């Protein structure tokens, strides 16, 4: 509960900080266009305002992390009933995922370090620290929110680790600490590729789920494929004046979703507002 309290504050501060930084960036660009002051004066004014802005939530996250370290210390000296469990680790991971944004490229690395610490702790005999699918999903979410050129590929790297690890039967100790990906895992990776403008990769991940024996796509999965093709249609029209093919792909997937919703017993399928966007495209 104490960790949760710090993380809630961290998330609120991070959201406000990111909004402030985007506003400062826009101000700096406007100063450059209006040529008010020299470039160096504008840059110094910009950096002064950025440094004076509110905290980004990192201090609160360090406070939350210190609680987990305290638990680990008590466990290390044999305090009864005190264990560093997956719940504590996941609480910390979810907090860092809240802080991730395009201006915080270091956040996913912090998340990865926590996940690796969990895996190492489990391999060293702490059965309470085995990471679950929520642990991996939090790391993938952190990478996706940074929207860096390598963010989607890094998201998929963790997905592949889950797929490979869960298919390995105790060949390595590490394999036992790697859960199977669920539909949310795939959806997070799909969102990362969507943000980087790769509709074909988003579609491939949906098709991969569709032939899987362990995970099935839901309406959110279909929605991401449709959105990816619609965004591609808009980009093609703006850049090249071309239209048609990407919109047709979006419509094809919407019809597929409608057919499954009406004739399939698979759970989690249903249409929503994405239908409106596709009709607008047509």
TrEMBL record:
This protein's name: Pentatricopeptide repeat-containing protein
Region of interest (Disordered), ranges: 31-58
Q: Where is the composition biased (Basic and acidic residues)?
A: 41-51
């Amino acid at each position: 509960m104490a960790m949760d309290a710090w993380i809630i504050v961290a998330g609120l501060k991070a959201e406000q900080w990111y909004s402030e930084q985007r506003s400062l960036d826009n101000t700096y660009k406007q100063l450059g266009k209006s040529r008010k002051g020299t470039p160096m004066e504008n840059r110094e004014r910009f950096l002064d305002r950025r440094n004076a802005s509110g905290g980004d939530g990192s201090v609160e996250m360090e406070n939350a992390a210190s609680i987990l370290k305290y638990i680990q210390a008590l466990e290390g000296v044999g305090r009864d009933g005190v264990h560093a469990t997956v719940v504590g680790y996941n609480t910390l991971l979810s907090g860092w995922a809240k802080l991730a944004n395009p201006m915080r490229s270091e956040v996913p690395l912090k998340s990865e370090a926590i996940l690796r610490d969990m895996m190492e702790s489990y391999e060293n005999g702490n059965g309470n620290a085995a990471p679950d699918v929520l642990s991996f999903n939090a790391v993938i979410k952190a990478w996706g929110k940074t929207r860096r050129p390598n963010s989607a590929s890094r998201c998929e790297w963790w997905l592949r680790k889950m797929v490979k690890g869960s298919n390995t039967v105790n060949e390595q100790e590490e394999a036992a600490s790697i859960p199977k990906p669920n539909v949310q895992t795939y959806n997070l990776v799909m969102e990362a590729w969507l943000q980087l403008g790769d509709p074909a990769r988003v579609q491939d991940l949906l098709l991969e789920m569709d032939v899987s024996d362990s995970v099935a796509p839901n309406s959110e999965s279909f929605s991401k494929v449709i959105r990816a093709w619609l965004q591609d249609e808009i980009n093609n029209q703006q850049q090249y004046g071309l239209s048609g093919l990407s919109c047709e792909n979006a419509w094809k997937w919407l019809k597929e979703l409608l057919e499954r919703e009406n004739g399939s017993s698979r759970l989690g399928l249903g249409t929503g507002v994405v239908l409106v966007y596709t009709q607008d495209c047509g």
